[in-house]
Specification:
Elements lengths: L18 E5 L8 E4 L2 E10 L9 E8 L5 E7 L3 E5 L2 E11 L3 E5 L5 E6 L8 H18 L4 E10 L2 E11 L1
Length: 170
């Protein structure tokens, strides 16, 4: 054997995890948890006293961040529970394409046109309100109004959704 032997080394991209495990007793109101595979925002947490088996239990009342559905989860406070990795990013809205897709640009000039108006995928009152405001503000923009339109996109477990809309006079 010589020292010049070539070896192929396969490498894989681990990527970022979509969830992390956290002790249930550490999760507070306003935090996030996974309930039946869905990312949810915690609306309320109640902790029961330790029972005869020695575990206090946490009862989580939460809302699915993408559909608005109410969920509940019960877990011993000392056990781990999955928490989604949730990120939020602000984008400037450039317009609407095909009455469905929102044209977005970030601070670095990166463009996106793959995100649908909120009520195209799910129908909650909040989604309908955001969608209506996007259409209204884009109409103002198209009619020559000197405004900038911004939105917040929330991302978790491979899904994304526009959750907030605001306009500023340019």
């Amino acid at each position: 054997m010589s020292g010049d032997d070539n070896y192929d080394i396969d490498t894989g991209d681990a990527g970022a995890s979509e969830t992390v495990s956290i002790e249930a007793g550490q999760i507070r109101k306003g935090g996030y948890i996974m309930v039946k595979g869905k990312p949810c925002k915690v609306r309320d947490v109640s902790v029961s006293k330790t029972g005869k088996h020695g575990h206090a239990k946490c009862k989580f009342s939460a809302i699915d961040i993408f559909t608005g559905n109410t969920c509940e989860e019960l877990c011993p406070s000392s056990h781990n529970i999955d928490v989604p990795v949730v990120s939020k990013k602000d984008w400037m809205i450039q317009g609407i394409q095909d009455e469905t897709y929102v044209l977005l640009m970030d601070d670095d000039g990166e463009m996106r046109e793959d995100l649908q108006l909120p009520n195209q995928s799910y129908t909650t009152d909040e989604d309908n309100k955001v969608s209506s405001l996007i259409k209204e503000y884009c109409d103002l923009l198209n009619n020559g109004a000197n405004i900038d339109i911004y939105c917040t996109v929330i991302s978790a477990v491979g899904k994304e959704k526009i959750t907030d809309i605001r306009k500023k006079d340019a």
